């Protein structure tokens, strides 16, 4: 009689059991989905991942990227301690890492050397975390190959050092130019002449920066230093020579010399009238040793009278360019026009692998 009088209670119990089973199935499905998702991430990660038993310090699992880093199989990694694969220097270092993890739960090593079984040297970053998985402690080590990043940082440091070195050199040149210009120029024209010479250096600098300090083509340098006479190039200014890329020191030295020669020609020489012409030629000879030569010759201008004294411009086209190129510069004050000839070893002048 009691069973017949309590059908609602029976149905409620059955429904509760069904809900409990359904909830457990949903929970199991979520757990299974989570495990599948974790395994996919573990397998596809582009960092090495190791799971380590904190009790034995031995590897229990490794992802494919880790096996690639070390050039070995999963089986070869399983059961080994970190020092055996070269990740830490010895077992004592592994124990120290675990000791720190137990107190801090997170340990980071920013720069560790790692050598694969194939002998490939790498720099890696290790981040270790201590987790609790269903009452069981596990250490997860993420290992990232930072070889390229470290190389890029080293290159950046070298680049900054080189920029600093070049800046100091350029400022030294500016100091010399300013001092010598002041010594050989009257106060009325000092600022103008100094600005022109610094502008000449700036033009060389622009070319070097544009080429990422990989040298400057002679033709580009000539065009930059004779920018004020670009309408005359091809008619009264004749330019000819093979492709040749100057190194930075040579570009600055020759650039300053061309500027001084062009300035002199416009004031007193072939470019000071309407008939004179200038020829700018350069060449590379390879026997008996590779040499770079360049010449500036004028004709059709006023009769040349050798100067009674030499100013800073003469120093620029002589001693300064000689020092920059380890070469020899000669000036001939012919009546028909000034002639300047430069010869220098290619090793001190050209970017030989790009010439």
Describe it for me?
- The chain starts with 6 loop residues before the first helix and ends in a 10-residue tail after the last strand.
- The chain is elongated, with a radius of gyration of 38 Å.
- It is of the alpha+beta class and 355 residues long.
- Helix 6 (187-210) packs antiparallel against helix 7 (218-225) and helix 8 (248-267) runs antiparallel to helix 9 (312-325).
- The chain folds into two domains: 45-145, Beta-Lactamase (2-Layer Sandwich); 166-348, Histidine kinase-like ATPase, C-terminal domain (Heat Shock Protein 90).
- The protein has a five-stranded antiparallel sheet, sandwiched between helices. A five-stranded mixed sheet has the order 7-9-10-12-11. It has a two-stranded antiparallel ribbon with strand order 6-8.
- The mean pLDDT is 83.
- The protein is 47% helix and 24% strand.
Number of strands: 12
Give the biggest sheet.
5 strands, antiparallel
Helicity, in percent? 40-55%
What is Rg?
A: 38 Å
**CATH class call of the largest domain:** Alpha Beta
Shape: elongated
Overall pLDDT confidence? 83
Number of helices: 9
Number of domain modules: 2
Strand numbers in spatial order across the main sheet: 2-1-5-4-3
Per the CATH scheme, the topology name of the largest domain is Heat Shock Protein 90
Q: What is the assigned CATH homologous superfamily of the largest domain?
A: Histidine kinase-like ATPase, C-terminal domain
